[in-house]
Amino acid sequence: MNNINSSKKISIICYGISALIFGAIYIFGVFLSKGDEMGYCMLNFYIVMPLTTLIVSLIISIKKGYLFWCYPVFVGLLGIIIPFAVFSTFEILSLFFAFFPALIGLIIGMIIRTKTKKYAIN
Fold first, then answer.
1. Where exactly are the transmembrane stretches of this chain (predicted)?
2. DSSP secondary-structure letter at 88?
3. Pairwise pLDDT comparison (25 vs 89), residue with the higher score
4. Domain extent for 35
């Protein structure tokens, strides 16, 4: 682990945090009781997933993490798999939970990185 450079470390940490949060969302969904489906969906799919992917993709793109372009695809797949595993339903709307916020965070992070690089003193 000593030979891993900074961009790979930040990528491993960001991908790991996302995987842990998405895993917790899945485990929480598996043990749902009757009548809690609406609260589960509102909390996780409309608040936790988009905020997590937006913030982590912002960090990974500002720091120019290793394979940062793969992050929206990674969380997009997780965002599709979790509703399918919990509710046994497949909808393309699931892309709005993770993929698009990650893409927006990636673009904003790249803009911030180019602005700060332009004003940085070398």
1. 12-31, 43-60, 67-86, 92-112
2. S
3. 25
4. 6-119
